[in-house]
């Protein structure tokens, strides 16, 4: 379904699909049992329309649901977590 975020474990990224082939992605790695968020990409044609925030919301909701601890290395995800204190309990570092 469009807009749902899923964890593509094989590619170490969360994905949110749109009509056609468009994907917004958040890359991560796992270190010491924690998910380290590295980078996000939103298709240029969707930039500035809130899709990055929708992706971030889905990522943090999935991580919270799975009881994961998170380290954010990418400014967008760090600032999203800062603006949404409901995710502060997930953050390490």
UniProtKB/TrEMBL annotation:
Q: Which InterPro entries match?
A: Acyl_CoA_acyltransferase (IPR016181), Gcn5-rel_NAT (IPR045057), GNAT_YJDJ (IPR031165)
EC numbers for this chain: 2.3.1.-
Pfam families cross-referenced by the UniProt entry = Acetyltransf_CG
Gene3D superfamilies in UniProt: 3.40.630.30
Specify the superkingdom.
Answer: Bacteria
Q: Which GO terms describe its molecular function?
A: acyltransferase activity
* Alphabetical UniProt keywords: Acyltransferase, Transferase
Q: Per the database record, which ranges form the N-acetyltransferase domain?
A: 6-92
Protein name (Swiss-Prot/TrEMBL): GNAT family N-acetyltransferase
- Species of origin reads Mesorhizobium captivum
């Amino acid at each position: 379904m469009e807009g749902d975020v899923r964890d593509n474990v094989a590619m170490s990224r969360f994905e949110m699909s749109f009509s056609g082939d468009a994907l917004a992605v958040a890359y991560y790695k796992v270190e010491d049992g924690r998910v380290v968020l590295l980078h996000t990409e939103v298709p240029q044609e969707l930039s500035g329309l809130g899709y990055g925030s929708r992706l971030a919301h889905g990522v943090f909701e999935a991580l919270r649901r799975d009881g994961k601890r998170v380290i954010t290395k990418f400014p967008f995800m760090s600032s999203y977590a800062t603006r949404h204190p409901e995710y502060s309990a997930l953050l390490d570092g």
